[in-house]
């Protein structure tokens, strides 16, 4: 019986009475969770077990910037909203999943975003598929070698006045524009100094020359109240190139700097579904 119910649950993401299709754009989360280079491991403890207590109760110790998660403006920019202060409409709406394939250390430019299709519109929730979600894991490939946004992309998003953005990479900024490079908590050699030396060997330039600012994409979008989702994945390829409706509601965590979130893309093939009028 349990197996049959579990199977039906996943089938129902596509076939349900509402006529909607649901796509999970989140990575699975749990023990052994990939973590950013300076975060402690996720801890999950069973306080009660079925065998001992007849009930299962678990305790989780984690940072909120773990797995697929959303950054609140206050995560990076002082005197901006915390997680519970961001208005609910920011976490729900229509938008696009665009394909912008990138290789090791490449930067997503404003031109890339301008050319992306479906065309990005003001007010859109924008999810960018670089192809890097396929490398998601406890690896240097994913965390240190990924492509990413930088200052130009952040300023483009802010100027475009999008509602929210998401990326299938390790952060809203290129890894060498984070503390992995010689910035912020990573100053002066970076959290992964050998990666910085590798960049210099491969390019003939120092990281600080090509990435002089610390998390400028974070700064540009969060200062404008545009929240960002990192580590997007799951079924992202199934909705890439499509306009969708998105939902990604965080906890109502007072003074929260971010939150683990389940990002869902919703498609209405018939166009018949309507939200209730409240009458």
Tell me how many strands there are: 11
Low-confidence stretches are: none
Mean pLDDT: 96
**CATH homologous superfamily label:** Putative cyclase
Helix content: 10-25%
Strand content: 15-25%
**Radius of gyration using CA atoms only:** 20 Å
Q: Tell me about the largest β-sheet.
A: 9 strands, mixed
CATH topology, what is it called?
A: Glucose Oxidase, domain 1
Task: Output the structural class.
Answer: alpha/beta
Structure description:
The longest helix is centred in the C-terminal third of the chain and has 11 residues, at 193-203. The strands form 2 sheets. The protein has a 9-stranded mixed sheet. With 279 residues, the chain is an alpha/beta fold. The protein is globular. The chain has a single domain (18-267), classed as Glucose Oxidase, domain 1 (3-Layer(bba) Sandwich). The chain is 22% helix and 18% strand. The model has no long low-confidence stretch (mean pLDDT 96).
Please specify the SSE layout and strand pairing.
Layout: H1 2-11, E1 21-24, E2 43-48, H2 50-53, E3 57-61, E4 69-71, E5 92-99, H3 110-115, E6 125-129, H4 140-144, H5 151-160, E7 164-167, H6 193-203, H7 207-210, H8 216-222, E8 227-230, H9 236-239, E9 243-247, E10 258-260, E11 264-267
Parallel strand pairs: 5-6, 6-7, 7-8
Antiparallel strand pairs: 1-11, 2-3, 4-8, 4-10, 5-9, 9-11
């Amino acid at each position: 019986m349990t197996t049959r119910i579990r199977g039906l649950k996943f089938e129902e993401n596509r076939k349900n009475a509402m006529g909607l299709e649901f796509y999970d754009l989140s990575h699975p989360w749990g023990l052994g969770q990939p973590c950013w280079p300076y975060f402690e491991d996720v801890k999950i403890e069973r306080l009660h077990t079925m065998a001992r207590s007849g009930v299962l109760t678990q305790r989780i110790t984690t940072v909120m910037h773990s797995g697929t998660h959303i950054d609140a403006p206050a995560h990076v920019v002082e005197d901006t909203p915390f997680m519970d202060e961001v208005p609910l409409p920011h976490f729900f709406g229509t938008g696009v999943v665009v394909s912008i394939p990138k290789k090791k250390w490449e930067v997503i430019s404003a031109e890339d975003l301008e050319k992306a299709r479906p065309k990005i519109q003001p007010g859109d929730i924008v999810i960018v598929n670089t192809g890097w979600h396929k490398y998601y894991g406890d690896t240097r490939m994913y965390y240190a070698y990924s492509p990413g946004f930088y200052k130009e992309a952040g300023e483009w998003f802010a100027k475009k006045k999008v509602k929210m953005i998401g990326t299938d990479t390790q952060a809203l900024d290129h890894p060498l524009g984070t503390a992995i490079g010689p910035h912020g908590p990573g100053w002066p050699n970076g959290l992964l100094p050998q990666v910085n030396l590798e960049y210099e060997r491969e390019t003939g330039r120092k990281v600080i020359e090509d990435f002089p600012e610390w998390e400028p994409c974070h700064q540009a979008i969060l200062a404008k109240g545009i929240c960002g989702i990192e580590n997007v994945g799951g079924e992202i390829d199934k909705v890439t190139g499509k306009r969708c409706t998105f939902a990604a509601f965080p906890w109502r965590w007072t003074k929260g700097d971010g939150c683990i979130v389940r990002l869902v893309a919703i498609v209405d093939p018939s166009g018949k579904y309507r939200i209730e009028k409240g009458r």
